[in-house]
Amino acid sequence: MDHEEALRLFDRRLRRRTGADGPQARLRRAGDVIRESGSDDDWHGVVWSGLDAATADAAIAAQIAYFTALGRDFEWKLYAYDRPHDLGARLRAAGFTPEPEETLMVAETAALPAPTTLPDGIRLVEVIDPAGVELMAEVHEQAFGTSAAKLRDQLLAELSRTPDTVLMTLAMAGDLPVCAARMELHPGTGFASLWGGGTLAAWRGRGIYRALVAHRARLAAAKGYRYLQVDASDQSRPILQRLGFAVLTTTTPYLYEQRVHPSRPTV
């Protein structure tokens, strides 16, 4: 895979795309940024910017004003190649908080290994109803130690509104969900993206996460998607590299939280 070409395609086809990203979510260009906004259950934030030292601060202020008027917390997804070079510092000065850095990794679906053998007693189940979403949320909370309330609402909305472009899979040990992952398809881009993959602590190191990656790669290839993209944590990066994913760049989520939510109680 040509890494520079893959990054160029990712930037042009995914980051710079505009229009509908779902029945209520919209990707729109506003000056030198592309932002996404929608309903309460949707993600909100800036996905791309084409700024320089002279325009950055005004653009940051404009996005804060826009999302504040909507009463939304939002994320500015900053990539290492974004300009100006001090954009991260400018975001922090404006009140954003950086989350842990992630690694943008991409692989060609045709080059990834065939689905691996699952450990004895483990089976993969596709999520098709709210009961399955509830199990996805349970795994998230146990694997990551954080609330899955927002994720639960997001997955229920996606299952209802865009079932053809989100695929959710559980690894089950009998009736116990031990790993959960999903894949989002981006029609017309050639890219599918991987999310989740949290595994319960007692079941880690057995190849379940690896098997779920290979399973989703096979599904993406069958649907005609050339590339798989993932924002990898430090824990998943080594596994993905061994599977054949290439590092393209790094990305840092910068979060802006509203100090007061209009029409909502404060605590």
TrEMBL record:
Domain of life: Bacteria
Protein name: GNAT family N-acetyltransferase
Species, as recorded: Streptomyces achmelvichensis
Source organism phylogeny: Bacteria, Bacillati, Actinomycetota, Actinomycetes, Kitasatosporales
